Structure formats: C-alpha cells, structure tokens
Amino acid sequence: MSEGQRQNWFESNPGKAKLLVFLLCLGFLEVLARAGVAAGWLPYWTYATNREPQYWVDIDPIVGRWRFPNTHFHNTANCIDVDYETNSVGARDRERSVRSDANNRVIVLGDSFAEGWGVDVDDRISNLLETATGIEHLNFGTASWGTIQQWQYYKHYARRYDHSAVFLFAFPQNDFADNNPDLQDHSFYRPYLRKTEGAYEIFYTVKFDERNTSERPAYKAIKNAIDNKIYLANVARRAVRLFKERRVKPITEPETDYDKFSEADIELFLYVLSRIAALAEDRRLYIITIPTEKDFEAAKANDGEFELIRKLRSFAKRTHNVDIVDLAPHFLSDATEFGRAYEDYTFSCDRHWGALGNRVAADAILEAVYGLPGANAKSALHKQAEVTASGP
After folding, report:
1. Which of 94, 250, 299, 313 is most exposed by smallest CB count within 10 Å?
2. Is 212 in contact with 188 (CB distance < 8 Å)?
3. CA of 190: how far to CAs of 62, 180, 202, 253, 367, in Å?
4. DSSP code for 25
5. Average pLDDT of 72-84?
6. How far apart are CA 326 and CA 288, in angstroms?
7. Are strands 72-75 and 82-85 parallel, antiparallel or unpaired?
C-alpha cells in the first residue's frame, strides 16, 4: 500500500470487522428463522421460564406426579395456547361429588391424551362423551403417567367415587417405557413394580423426601427465556434434540408403537390391568388403545391385527369384566371416508390430538361402548334415558 493510500475502517479494524460481519450474518439468519417459523416451515417451541413448579409436580406420596388443587395454569407450549384448571382434588375437571345417585358414572384414567393435552375441556374426549350421553365422566388423566400410576391412583383415590365403569386410555408408545425404571430418571418419585420370589411388589427409586421437586435452576430459566426470544437459538435447540433422538433410535425398532414391548413389558402390563380389573369388581373396565402415526400407517398397510391387541383381547376373554376398544381402526375408517391424514388429528407441532382427534376418538367410544352414532352428539342426548338404563 502506498503512503498516499488510506486504510478504510475494515482494514484498520480487522478484528472488529470480523465481529461485525458475524453479527450481521446472525441477524440475517435470525430474520430467516422468524420468517420460517411464521410460514410454518420451521418448528418453534415455547420453554417454561418459571423457577418453581406450578402444575404437574411430584407431590403425592403414592403416585408421585399430580397437580395442586384449585390451580390455574396457562399452557403456551409450542403451538398450544390453552388454560388448565384443577378442582379441589387436583384433577383437571369440574368439581365432582364422591357420592352419586346416578345409575351410571365413569372413572377416566390415562396420561396426557386422557387429560386433554393442549385442548379446551369442552373439546376433550371425556367432556364430549359426557355431553353426548348425559353420563358423568370423571377425568383423572395426568400427563406423564404410566399404567402403574393409574392403577395406584384408582386404588387409593378414584375408586372411592361412586361409579359404574372405568375407561383406561392406554398409549403403547410410552406406557411400557413409563413402567420401566431403567428408562426413567431415578430422581423423580413414581411407583414401579419388581418381581420378588415370583410376585410383583411396588417400589420407588428415591425416597419421597429426597425426590426431585422439579424446581428449575436459574440458569435453565434464563436459557429458556433467551431461546423463547431468539428464534435462531430456538430452532437450533430443537434441531439438536431431533438429531439426538434419531441417532439413538434402535435399529431393530418395530414398525409400530403398539408392538414395541418385550415379554417382560407385556407381562407386567397385563398384571397391572388385572389388578385394576379386580379392583373394579363387577364394573366394566374398558381398555382404550391410542395409536400413533406409525400404528395408523401400519394399520393402513395391512389388515392384520397388532400383536398387542391380540394379547389384550386374549386377556379380556379370561377376565370377566374387561372390554377392548382399539381406536386405530376407527381413525383409519374416518381418514378413508374424509380423505384425512393422521396429522389432521393432531397439533401441527405436537403428537397429541387436537379437537378433531378428540372428536373422532369420542365417536369411536360412543359407538363401541354406548351403541350410539358417532359425530352426532344431539342424537346421543335424545337417547340418554336408554343409555342410563343399560349403562356402560
């Protein structure tokens, strides 16, 4: 460079110039990320920033995870925006009396699908069934519960309510994993089963007083707040998680989530169902299976029945008060009739049912359990007297 030539700012400040270019590139990528999220091309997840638990907490000494009574929670996770409220016992339901003169009343057990993750209560399956039949459906479903917790909650709490039937919503994709302590965080408090001298016994991996109270560390709350504001960080965080999930996916994973179990898994699962059936005594226990997209596609590809459903039907035949309602055929029938894909039944950003998925599931149960036509709640209300006489 000749003496007469003057350096520009970039040449004079190479370090600052590189930093400026880097920041401009980040800004450009941030604009692209926001545009991608707005157009629905990229996922955006809202992360909780509160320090203390507000809704689902390991507060119960028997089942672990439950909810505080008379609590309000505004769920804005991902594409979901809905208010949750609990009654005086912590159930996401209206207030229910323990005693009832009604001939029929149903206890509802299950995980987030039964709880109605992401939907208003009026669009939730148990509320749709209650509106259509005039029969109370007491909802005790809770996110992240396995069948062992459902059994224990029914045994110690829900069974005291007058009822004529039990609906247990089974979600095979994670029910077997929820019952397996080897696949769960041992710092959280929840019941498991183990065999001792050929018999099952309840145990916990941590003492109640030493459990993880789900309090969020300050650094995580700050990180979540940043990820909520900076879309590029949000998208990158989700991409890393998806990469990790796919990288650790077993090569031998079955083609369906229904049949993703070992012999030990199904033996324990059926044992728990037998205990619930025994507690129900002469009341009917309806085991309602929830398909994932993999199960839906597998059902579409072949007409054969899943191994899980065969085992459940065999179990029902030798148990006097059990019926099986598999929702997969009904979703497949609805999709065929109306030209729908499985994603039409779920949220755009989440695997749970939206309002349509809950409606289709309710139609299946109205038909299978109550003998009423689906997709026609008004006709069901006209037949309320008949249903009350026959009962579920």
Report:
1. 250
2. yes
3. 8, 11, 10, 26, 35
4. H
5. 84
6. 6
7. antiparallel
Q: Name residue 339's amino acid.
A: G
CATH class for the region spanning 71-215+253-390: alpha beta
Q: How many residues are given for the chain?
A: 392
**CA dihedral over 209, 183, 75, 65, signed as positive or negative:** negative
Confidence of residue 252 (pLDDT cuts 50, 70, 90): very low
Residue in the structure block whose two tokens are 């065929």: 336
**Whole-number Å distance between alpha carbons of 356 and 268:** 33
Measuring CA to CA, how many Å separate 377 from each of 33, 121, 332?
Answer: 43, 16, 21
Please write the tens of the pLDDT for every residue from 310-343: 999 999 999 999 999 999 999 999 999 999 999 9
Q: Quick check: helix, strand or coil at residue 41?
A: coil
CB 362 within 8 A of CB 351: no
pLDDT at 4: 52
74 CB burial (10 A radius; 0-12, 13-18, 19+) = exposed
- Output the 3-class SS for 44-93: CCCCCCCCCCCCEEEEECCCEEEECCCCEEEECCCCCCEEEECCCCCCCC
| Whether the Cβ atoms of residue 271 and residue 202 lie closer than 8 Å to each other | no
User: Could you tell me the sign of the dihedral formed by the alpha carbons of 156, 322, 165, 359, in that order?
Assistant: positive
